Target: Pyridoxal phosphate homeostasis protein
Amino acid sequence: MRRDEIAAGLAEVQERIAQACEAARRDPGEITLIAVTKTRPAEDVRILAELGVRDVGENRDQEAAAKAHELAELPLTWHFVGQLQTNKVRSVVGYADVIHSVDRARLVEAVSKEAVRQGRAVGCLIQVALDDDPGRGGALPADVPGLADEVAAAEGLWLGGVMAVAPLGEDPGKAFARLRDVALAVQERHPRATMISAGMSGDLTEAVANGATHVRIGTALLGRRKPFVR
Ligand SMILES: *Cc1c(COP(=O)(O)O)cnc(C)c1O
Model:
């Protein structure tokens, strides 16, 4: 049964988080598991919620909007973790509690304006580019504190902290150590912006070792995704 599969995946991920915390001498209570449910049916999200998961992540607006509206009665925090175009902001602000991919001033302005219009308070993480590939999104580390200031000053938004995806082909521990430095620079100016969203199925241990507070896990929880066609 699907529920048993998901329960087993969840137990395994929780065990990996516990071990990573032990190795890093951290309290597992500091880590929030975000179940990344992209490409999965709403029913999987419902099962996760029944199993006690409270945070879910999606990366494509169309799919996320449908699920979030269908499951609006569940006690879930919705995280938008994908690259965000300004023409999707209106839709995303309608359901997302936290947007992990804020990486440019234009987007800050657009999300703020829409949050005010809809009367919502939207959490924003500044996505940090840990390599030089602009195609994957993220602000350059040097630009992050300035963007964080803009989020903190914008109406309708609260600054959560930072997010990153480890670059391909580099030791994720080294990359996440750079992310932690950026996070600390932000926290010096904004002490409550303590979120560090880092770590996926393949690198959660390195992320936890480097201060992650939120890990975004899809495959290890729900199984491998079919590659989707765009
Ligand atoms: C898909 C995705 C994840 C989850 O990746 P897995 O390797 O399946 O755990 C995490 N973060 C982002 C931004 C994603 O797009």
